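Recall from the previous lesson that a structure prediction takes nothing but the amino acid sequence as input. Here we apply that procedure to glutathione transferase from Acipenser oxyrinchus oxyrinchus. The sequence below is the only information supplied.
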Amino acid sequence: MVLELYLDLYSQPCRSVYIFAKKNNIPFEFKQLSLFEGQHYSEEFGKINPLRKVPAMKDGDYQLAESIAILLYMCRKFKTPDHWYPSDLQKQAKVDEYLSWQHAAIRAPASKLFWFKLMMPIITGNNTPQAKMDSTLEELNTSLQLFEENFLQDKNFIVGQEISLADIVAIVELMQPLGSGLDIFEGRPKLTAWRERVKANIGKELFDEVHELILNATDMPKKMEQSVMLPHLKTTLQKC
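The prediction returns the following tokens.
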């Protein structure tokens, strides 16, 4: 029995799950959902994940939500190579350290930049105030400096010389602002070199496949015109 993975590849956590499953030849059925069409609020999906979020996983009668939990489940069930989530206590703790830190430090500001720069004008008809853009970019730049100096240091990857779950989770988040036309890798040769190592390790074809939607996100206005989520998104963004 193969896993069922409910994903929308506009979503960073969904991309991490997709990359990991594909890279490790884990058998799964790709159940594609559209967040912009509100498919996560359907009665059918509510039975899969009452939290109404993607990614979600179904393994027979067993259901699981949250990307980190799903990644670790796949690691353990399919006994993937040790470098992804090392059995060595201290290396494993370093993966855990990054996964714990990144939610607020990387994911939050990187996601905000994407929404503020690309989605705010589409959804509300107004540009994000420049002061808000500047403060969010400053927040991310501070975190990127910490990422380079504290986590990456002089290593090839976050935990050492081999790729881990930490690198996959990091790369999908840092690719998100590029979808809005904001290249956060520009002027950061160390970060750019790390991205290229991650891309080479994952495989260019898989890397490009999983990021195709987000890197063409400037086509989003056409998709948003008919979105049932538009009123909800507008109200949410106006509170930001």
